Every structure is written in C-alpha cells, then in structure tokens.
C-alpha cells in the first residue's frame, strides 16, 4: 500500500524533519520517509535518488513508492566541521572513494546530471547574480564534469554526512546524485565547508593515496565551478524562501572558489 504524504502531514505522530524546495521529510519512531516534489527545478536536474538507492543499495531496508521512499533511521552524530577530528576527515575521504570505486552497472539507467540546463535555469531566476568570468567558468567546468564517470553523490553537505560508531561515515541523500566526475564530489566537499588548510590537506591526501589517478588541474577547475554552481543554487533558495542566510552562503561560496 502506497504511503500518502497528505495523511502523514495530518498525523501528529509523524514529525516534520525537513520541508524543502525539492523534498519533504518526516519521521516516526525509527522510520524516516522522504517525499519528492515535482516542480520546474526538479524537472531540470532530473532527481534520480530512487534509481540510485535501488542500484547501490544505500540502505539495508527500503520501502519505495512512486514519489517517495522510507527507511530505518540510522543512529548517528551530526557532522559539524568545527567539531570533527582528523579521523572523521580521513573516513569521509575513504567513504567518498568507496562510492567512486563501485563498478557502474552496464545496464544502469542512471544518468549524468544536466548541469548546463540547471545553470541556465538558475541564471533566469530573479535573484540570481551574474558573476565575473562565469561563462568561462561554465565552459571549463563542463569539460571536467560528466567525464570519466563514476557514481557520485553531487551534494556532500554537512547534513548528508552521518557520523556512525567509531567515527565511521555514511553518506546519504542522493537526490542530486548521478554519474559524474569524482572531482565534483571532492570539490563540493571542500568548498561547502570552512576547512582549514590542514583539514583540506588531510581530506585530499587521504583520497589521493587511495587512487592512482588524480589531476590537480581538474580538481582546481572543478573547485571553481562547484563554488559558482552552488552559489547560484543558494541564491535560488534565497529567492524561494526569502531567508537571507542563503544569500550570505552564496557570497561565501564565491569566495571559497577563488
């Protein structure tokens, strides 16, 4: 029997965890349910989370419907960069590398995200800023992403990183996920949080030691591209929510990419 978001919304035993632009999340006891929203933006970036969950088996047990999935809540500590230690950063790099190492299913229906159309969609919005040299940044970024494909999360923010027992890491939320360059995940991890130079070195050096193929030039290009891409996304979220924090995040991200 399909779960109905309207019923869950009215049921006071279910607690709203997150009401977002592209999904709504509720939890009850040990169960968490995520319902996807269909709108102009979600159509552009092609939400593939259900496909990815099925193919990669991210969770041990799943209930999947047409526009939602439910899973058991995972006991964890929240990830805050001010409170993480070196071991956590090392384990983040290892967890991301293990995702990238999964062999792509030859019959996969998962696609690379449509960054060009998403970028163009964002640029048409009312509160999106046009940045200096952004056309060059877009051109160079598109040469790097969607090449040498692997499974990628594409949105490794603090809230999508779970710290488990013994500081092990689990990455969740694959709504922006798809096949992509590893450099997009790595650059997103770096630009989306205030890492010290030492923390960034610990994270990147761990990943690099686990791979035989790392191109610093590609990483640098991806770093600039992701900073500008997520800045535009933050501006869009500011437009939709009118919460000034997102405008501040956008400005900060641009600085992170420089």
Report a brief summary of the structure:
The chain is built from 10 helices and 10 strands. The protein is α+β, with helices and mostly antiparallel strands.
Task: Report on the architecture of this protein.
It is a single chain. It contains ten helices and ten strands. Strand 1 and strand 2 (23-28) form a beta hairpin. It has helices at residues 5-10, 40-45, 49-56, 86-101, 115-123, 134-144, 182-191, 197-209, 216-241, 244-257, and strands spanning 15-19, 23-28, 31-36, 62-64, 68-72, 77-78, 150-152, 161-163, 169-171, 178-180. It is globular, with a radius of gyration of 18 Å. With 258 residues, it is α+β, with helices and mostly antiparallel strands. A five-stranded antiparallel sheet has the order 1-2-3-5-4. Strands 6-8-9 form a three-stranded antiparallel sheet, with helices on one face. Strands 7-10 form a two-stranded antiparallel sheet. The N and C termini lie far apart (50 Å).
The main β sheet shows up as: 5 strands, antiparallel
Main sheet strand line-up: 1-2-3-5-4
Number of helices: 10
The residue-averaged pLDDT reads 93
Strand content: 15-25%
- Distance between the ends: 50 Å
Name the shape in a single word. Answer: globular
Structural class estimated from helices and strands:
alpha+beta
Number of strands: 10
Helix content: 40-55%
- Note the run of SSEs as H and E: HEEEHHEEEHHHEEEEHHHH
Residue windows where pLDDT falls under 50 for at least 5 positions = none
> For the CA atoms, what is the radius of gyration?
18 Å
